[in-house]
Predict the structure of Membrane protein.
Amino acid sequence: MFTMFQGARQRQAVFVDTVRSRLWPVPAIGVIAAVALGVALPQLDTALDARMPVTLAGYLFGGGADGAREVLAAIATSLMTVTSLTFSLTLVTLQLASSQYSPRLLRTFASDRFVQRTLALFLATFAYALTVLRTIRNAVDGSASFVPRISVTVAYLLAMASVLGLVLFLGHLVRQIRIETMLDHVSRDVIDTVCRTAAPLGDEPAFVPPLPRTRTHIIAARSSGFLTQVGEAALVAAAVDADAVVLVDRPVGSSIVANVPVALCWAAGPSSELDGDGLDSLRERVAGALHTGVERTATQDVGYGLRQLTDVAVRALSPGINDPTTAVHALQSCTAVLCELAGYRLGPRILRDEDDVARVVLTRPDLPELLDMVCTQPQIYGERDPLVMGSLLMLLRDLAWVVRQPEHRLAIADRCQRLRLSIAAQQFESSGRSGLERLMSQVDEALHQRWDLGNDSHAEGRQPR
């Protein structure tokens, strides 16, 4: 079933997001692997030293024990300095992103795989050099010296790779702090989230959420914080065992407070009731399936990415930054995301058991709610800028061409009317006002005419402007 398949994908996504959003797992794995390699390679040197082919030996380290120590010590010292520089540059980038764009972008930078792998390379090279250094021996009291030539050569190669990695890291960092790169990364996260949590229109039939036919019971939250994850399989199992229906009326990403109602439940049968130990067990299991955290994540939260994009636009419109061009770029990214979301079934999601009986209703934002979230604050803070208002109108125009459902068209028309009233109250120049009026007429045209995106001509013989 689609629900079970989506549940497996979401559990995998939760695990991957947990690992990716932290800076230490990949470097820690690199250090452990480097230590293991630093122990194993000297033993390989011992086994192959007497049988090393002359041709191969010519490419390996040819110095003595003191020279090997100096090389490894230089590598270890320089790599720790480079690691400190890399970490400092990363923190500066995080501070810039937080102050200039939005503090909600910090999680995006922390999950950057290139940064994680670069730190892993630097720390692994440092740990490997120290581990090999301990195996070098001078000739003392008749004992033979030992210089692990293969191991020292590998340390040299890792050092060269680290130098190349530093150069690539600096170039990557410059590219990552560009607003276009950040907006594209957030937009792709939103699309990935909706692909995991929603079905395309037409792939899943539309279901009407079940209504309570018996007395409802309140389920309170167990802890405070942001609702970051909903254990869908656990909720369905709990509802099946209690022969009940559960409605979670807080969407993922909302702020919840401990001991405050977040869900309702009622008996599935019209003549049965929930009470006693069965009700207590259901409440406990439902509360345990609602996971909270100190910050929102993009794993199941469709609106989180759009919140990030909108925050960038609002921050750019603040008097302290005053960068309307960045706000326009953010709104263009919102346009592309909303047009993509229009092809998916948003709104409340119904989870069914193996007998195809509706057991759980999850509250999710629909397209009109997401549209209001994207447009409301930029309209408030950018209503005096014709460039920003024009970007909002272009958003509505492009979205109007791709939406399929009547309620979505009504939401676009309502938002266009709000923009029309806001524009009428401003004292724009005649050229700017005429451009905005032309965009408003294009929104109306897109709303009231049907356009087949697969054909080359308009249904009435005219091309869209």
Notes: DSSP finds 16 helices and eight strands in the chain. The CA atoms of residues 357 and 451 lie 38 Å apart. Strands lie at 217-220, 225-230, 244-248, 255-256, 261-267, 290-293, 349-352, 358-362. Residues 17-177 form one domain.
